[in-house]
Design goal:
175 residues; alpha+beta; Alpha-Beta Plaits; 6 helices; 4 strands
Length: 175
């Protein structure tokens, strides 16, 4: 078995893709308030800055900036995923999942990528915001409500009509 190691960069900036076990599920959107509450609690207990985020029905993309003295994003994801799952009915029943106290709601792993420079950051922000269009949920980036795109527009960082003309963003994004 490979010895997988996650990047450990104190104060690092990371892009994540986190996915539900059932890719046809709409649970994240149906339970958006539950997700937001768990996310907020994790951020309060183990601070991090959300640079960009987009929550889709079955997965989410986000960029976090961690505090200067901290590289422990796995504990934050554990808090978010377990908090969200707590109180929901299990989606699959298996002895393997039960032994690990899992409900089969989330995929066990997630994709992480250390942001390397400004161009890398901008490419990942564009990918995050364009994702609802890519998956056919909306035809314009501005039409998806569960995205930091709207915050970027409010601050004047992006134009309201940005993203409608994007056809492809190169890179690996964990989908």
């Amino acid at each position: 078995m490979p010895n997988y190691r996650r990047a450990s960069i104190k104060g690092g900036m990371f892009f994540f893709t986190v996915v539900l076990e059932n890719r046809s599920s709409r649970l994240l959107i149906e339970q958006i308030d539950r997700f937001r509450a768990c996310y907020r609690v994790a951020r309060e207990r183990r601070p991090f800055e959300t640079i960009a985020i987009c929550i889709l029905p079955d997965h989410l993309h986000v960029i976090w900036a961690l505090p200067d003295n901290d590289s422990n994003y796995p504990i934050r994801w554990s808090m978010i995923k377990s908090g969200f799952s707590r109180g929901l009915k299990p989606h699959t029943q298996s002895s393997s999942l039960s032994a690990k106290r899992e409900k089969g709601i989330w995929q066990r792993r997630y994709w992480e990528h250390a942001i390397r420079n400004q161009a890398d950051l901008e490419r990942h922000i564009d990918y995050i915001h364009f994702n609802p269009v890519k998956h056919g949920h909306v035809s314009r980036v501005a039409d998806w409500p569960h995205s930091s795109f709207h915050r970027f527009v409010e601050h004047g960082w992006l134009a309201h009509d940005r993203g409608g003309d994007v056809k492809r963003i190169d890179g690996s994004f964990g989908e």
